[in-house]
Design goal:
Blueprint lengths: L4 H24 L6 H22 L18 H15 L4 H20 L2 E10 L8 E4 L12 E3 L4 E8 L4 E5 L6 E6 L5 E5 L6 E5 L11 E4 L13 E8 L8 E7 L8 E7 L43
Antiparallel strand pairs: 1-2, 1-12, 2-5, 3-4, 3-12, 4-5, 6-7, 6-9, 7-8, 8-11, 9-10, 10-11
Helix pairs in contact: 3-4
């Protein structure tokens, strides 16, 4: 195209239309009028993203070994067998060993909570999908993935499914500013609502303004009606700061999430909720406090009376 006045006006018009669509999309959220276009794009470009990811990642196909771990009968035994089979398929380099550890931890969490999960791999992140904290996974409606399903990994809550294509799905991460999840405090059961704060700690509004909360306390998901978008018992994070209580109806605490959102790789989508609330069973045991080192006291006894020399041995 030649650089003419008409071509410049056309370019400015297209840019203006693009910004208008972005603004409408952000303000409308999940009810966006362009949601249909987004899903159509997912249907077209999803297989391309998935194909490229598979081509450059020699172990991508192995993730499918954990995609059918949702049977209720002997679920833990099934997870263990699939984990062993997956290990046998994978190699022994550093990256592979790291991914095996991730799978191990994820399967342990799923087994502890009795969650039926579909394994998936993160194949795209963030900016290409808007201004929110999101990732794309290589599992979609063909794999039984639906909107508003809980997503976790070996550390805890990753987020929830927001958009689903045939081969891929978009996951809104728990640190997204528009993300909110009901929480329950370990042991005491105090309830609250956690909101994402980007790369900062999660903000949690405790419903009881007089709730006793201390740094180091841990939180799990409270769960949703019908288990969507959240199943109960998924670890969220650890309290790092507690705002002073001023007699308000609510109280704010700050929680460091267990999940590292900038290094996501393998995740699990919960396609079958637990039969009952696992409560705190999915949380890992707290490390025991180190035992104090015993103090050894040495007493030295003098060989003679002070000021008086000891007698020679031959006297």
């Amino acid at each position: 195209m030649r650089d003419t006045r008409e071509s410049r006006l056309l370019l400015v018009l297209l840019i203006a239309i693009a910004f208008a669509l972005i603004t409408v999309d952000i303000r409308a959220g999940e009810e966006s009028p362009v949601d249909g276009a987004r899903q159509a794009a997912a249907a077209v470009f999803g297989p391309v993203e998935k194909g490229v990811s598979t081509a450059v990642d020699p172990v991508a196909n192995a993730i499918g070994a954990v995609r059918d771990s949702g049977e209720r009968h002997n679920r833990i035994a099934t997870l263990e067998r699939e984990n062993a089979a997956l290990k046998a398929k994978l190699g022994s380099d550093d990256q592979t060993r790291s991914r095996i550890r991730e799978l191990d931890e994820m399967l342990k969490r799923a087994g502890a909570g009795q969650y039926g999960i579909k394994g998936a791999e993160v194949i795209a992140i963030g900016a290409a999908q808007g201004f929110s904290w999101t990732v794309t996974i290589d599992a979609g409606s063909k794999d039984g993935i639906e909107r508003d399903m809980t997503v976790l990994n070996g550390d805890g809550l990753v987020g929830r499914v927001s958009t689903v294509g045939p081969d891929t799905a978009t996951v809104v991460l728990a640190n997204d500013p528009d993300f909110t999840v009901g929480t329950r405090l370990e042991k005491t059961g105090e309830l609250g609502f956690a909101t994402g704060q980007g790369d900062r700690a999660l903000s949690v509004q405790m419903l009881n303004g007089k709730a006793k909360v201390s740094p180091g306390d841990r939180l799990v998901t409270f769960g949703s009606r019908g288990n969507k978008p959240f199943v109960p018992g998924v670890p969220i994070g650890e309290v790092v700061k507690v705002d002073p209580s001023r007699g308000d109806l609510t109280r704010t605490v700050w929680v460091r999430p267990f999940v590292g959102f900038s290094r996501l790789d393998i995740v699990g989508v919960v396609v079958m909720p637990p039969r009952e609330d696992p409560r705190d069973a999915v949380l890992p045991p707290k490390p025991e406090a180190p035992k104090p080192t015993p103090t050894v006291t040495v007493t030295v006894t003098p060989s003679g009376t002070a000021g008086v020399p000891a007698k020679p041995a031959d006297e």
